[in-house]
From TrEMBL, chain A:
Protein name in UniProt: ABC-type polar-amino-acid transporter
Domain ABC transporter: 5-249
Family matches, as SUPFAM superfamilies: P-loop containing nucleoside triphosphate hydrolases
Enzyme class: translocase
Organism: Streptomyces caelestis
Lineage of the species this protein comes from: Bacteria, Bacillati, Actinomycetota, Actinomycetes, Kitasatosporales
Automatic annotation (TrEMBL), chain B:
The protein's name in its UniProt record: Histidine/lysine/arginine/ornithine transport system permease protein HisM
Keyword tags: Cell membrane, Membrane, Transmembrane, Transmembrane helix, Transport
Family as reported in the entry's similarity comment: Belongs to the binding-protein-dependent transport system permease family.
InterPro entries named in the record: AA_ABC_Transporter_Permease, AA_ABC_transptr_permease_3TM, MetI-like, MetI-like_sf
Assembly mode: The HisPMQJ complex is composed of two ATP-binding proteins (HisP), two transmembrane proteins (HisM and HisQ) and a solute-binding protein (HisJ). The HisPMQ-ArgT complex is composed of two ATP-binding proteins (HisP), two transmembrane proteins (HisM and HisQ) and a solute-binding protein (ArgT).
TM region positions: 42-62, 82-107, 119-145, 266-287
Domain ABC transmembrane type-1, first and last residues per copy: 83-284
Membrane topology: Multi-pass membrane protein
Organism of derivation: Streptomyces heliomycini
Gene3D superfamilies in the record: MetI-like (1.10.3720.10)
Main location: membrane
Superkingdom, natural source: Bacteria
Entry keyword annotation includes Transport: yes
Length: 253, 322
């Protein structure tokens, strides 16, 4: 299997605070890759580096063999133009903790927006596809509702449909269920499980250990900006090797 | 008083009778209590009415005011043309202000230090000097640039270019742009950063993100103060009197000074200013509703809808009592 995401010594600082202190990892194509760890461990920051919402300070980050945010010529790195970064992001879907749906558009308009504006798909075609996607996430009857008229779980499922509308090769999930009422979490996880079964490559930052164990193919435990432990989710979650991992899991499980 | 009391006890007795008869669960009878008396409201109301009456009397009986002149001139052709020009210059200056204001706001928030500084200096100058002075500066521009020379495209005497209309438009419009820039900047920064991130994550460019995602949401914050600005503009436009543009105030004043009806013509001007600002206040209300789309689950009813609902409830009540 080839690597969809490859990180080599990724560092990231916000001012004087070093958030990522050299991350090395590999996400294989088609797998569900879970990132867990306490808050402030840098897992969300790392996720945001993958689609260049954050610029890395050192190291190399590749998506599908392509350097993220830079072009390498010889041993020199050139920053990509905004339009080129946008081009790279087209293929990477992202789902946010706080949904970030566009509140002035209906659910179906949210899903149609990027295909029409970025890919130049015709409105009729985009609407048809958007309707299908909304049905796929179980919201066919909510197409005309504005986000404020939807529950958190419904909003997050619209957000997933919105990301899928760009036919991404990689999906990033940034704590997709953390802002939801407990009883709404299941619906969103069901959609993500379906997506995993369809073969989508997914990087998931999550606190849902059940989801990680059941659906995840790989799991990484991060703390203090470094990868502490990684491996098969079932092994790591049931038999953690490091003290730090044990301490964390004993609190959340 | 006793009458009312009797009726109330009658009502209570019959309600009790009903509940005894039916035996089933009856909704509790509506409370009929004597409301708190607000004597202060009555007293202050009388005082205000008395003061208004005195003021109206002073105006109505003023010997030097010929009230018929007000009526004669309200629909006078010159006055109407003046009101039309006031409206025209205000709308055009406002359009100029909004367009330039949005551009300046985007420039100020830009990562490019040159554009952001240019915008800052523009706003600093045009907000820092009085409109009146700016109007006069534009009007007298020919003193610095006697010729307007745009190379092969256009060449003319500045005096011919800088007509009263042009001076008024540039003076009001460019000044307004500085204020609109600050309003727009506040609106743009009020939009949640997650919106920009979501749009960028979908591969949208900066420009598209701004046009499709950020600006439409900023409008909700921008529209109410912009309505205020426009209503302000309608009145500020009276300053272009100074550059001899023949708007409402100049038109009425000219008639006033030739027909010895100065006060009367100022009343006429007031009437038209009030009419125009009132009409636009209503327009602003509906515009705000339009941009509140999606931000609240249920839009509040418009006054007209409220009237309809009330009328329907009233007729239902009447038919039920009959």
């Amino acid at each position: 299997m080839t690597a969809m995401v490859k990180a080599e010594g990724v560092h990231k600082s916000f001012g004087p605070v070093e958030v990522l202190k050299g991350i090395d990892l590999e996400v294989r194509t088609g797998e569900v890759f879970c990132l867990i760890g306490p808050s402030g461990s840098g897992k969300s920051t790392f996720l945001r580096c993958i689609n260049h919402l954050e610029k890395i300070n050192a190291g190399r980050l590749y998506v599908d063999g392509e350097l993220v945010g830079y072009r390498q010529k010889g041993d020199k790195l050139y920053e990509l133009k905004d339009s080129e970064v946008a081009q790279q992001r087209r293929d990477i879907g992202m789902v946010f903790q706080r949904f970030n749906l566009f509140p002035h558009m209906t659910a179906v308009e949210n899903v149609m927006e990027a295909p029409v504006q970025v890919k130049g798909v015709s409105k009729a075609q985009a609407r048809e596809r958007a309707t299908q996607l909304l049905e796929r996430v179980g919201l066919g009857d909510k197409a005309r509702n504005y986000p404020s008229q939807l529950s958190g779980g419904q909003q997050q499922r619209v957000a997933i449909a919105r990301a899928l509308a760009m036919d991404p090769k990689l999906m990033l999930f940034d704590e997709p269920t953390s802002a939801l009422d407990p009883e709404l979490v299941g619906d969103v996880l069901d959609v993500m499980r379906d997506l995993a079964e369809s073969g989508m490559t997914m990087v998931v930052v999550t606190h849902e250990m059940g989801f990680a164990r059941e659906v995840g193919d790989s799991l990484v435990f991060m703390d203090g900006g470094v990868v502490v432990e990684s491996g098969n989710p079932r092994d790591v979650l049931t038999d953690p090797q490091h003290e730090r991992t044990k301490a964390f899991l004993s609190k959340v499980l | 008083m006793t009458d009312k009391f009797d009726k109330e006890t009658d009502g209570a007795r019959s309600a009790a009778a009903v509940s005894k008869d039916s035996g089933a669960a009856v909704p509790p009878a509506a409370i009929k209590a004597i409301p708190v008396r607000h004597y202060g409201r009555w007293v202050s109301g009388v005082v205000v009415l008395a003061l208004v009456a005195l003021l109206v009397n002073a105006f109505a009986t003023a010997e030097k005011i010929q009230w018929h002149a007000v009526g004669d001139y309200v629909f006078d052709g010159t006055v109407l043309a003046g009101a039309g020009r006031t409206l025209l210059i205000s709308v055009l200056a406002m359009v100029m202000g909004v367009v330039l204001g949005v551009i300046l706001a985007v420039m100020r928030l830009s990562k490019n230090p040159v554009t952001s500084w240019v915008a800052w200096i523009y706003i600093w100058f045009f907000r820092g000097t009085p409109v009146y002075v700016q109007l006069l500066l534009w009007f007298n521009l020919a003193l610095i640039f006697p010729m307007l020379n745009l190379g092969p495209i256009y060449k003319d005497e500045m005096v011919d270019v800088m007509t009263p209309f042009m001076a008024a438009l540039l003076g009001l419009g460019l000044n307004e742009a500085a204020y609109m820039a600050e309003i727009c900047r506040a609106g743009l920064t009020a939009v949640d950063e997650g919106q920009t991130e979501a749009a960028h994550a979908l591969g949208m460019s900066h420009g598209k993100t701004l046009r499709r995602i950020v600006i439409p949401q900023a409008m909700r914050v921008i529209v109410p103060p912009t309505g205020n600005e426009f209503i302000n503009m309608l009145k500020t436009s009276s300053l272009v009197y100074a550059v001899t543009y023949n708007e409402l105030l100049r038109a009425t004043s000219t008639i006033g000074s030739t027909s010895y009806a100065v006060m009367e013509m100022l009343f006429v001007a007031c009437i038209w200013y009030l009419v125009i600002t009132s009409v636009f206040s209503v327009g602003q209300y509906y515009l705000e509703r339009r941009f509140a789309r999606g931000s609240s689950r249920n839009l509040p009813a418009t006054p007209w809808q409220k009237i309809k609902v009330n009328l329907m409830a009233f007729s239902r009540e009447r038919s039920s009592t009959v």
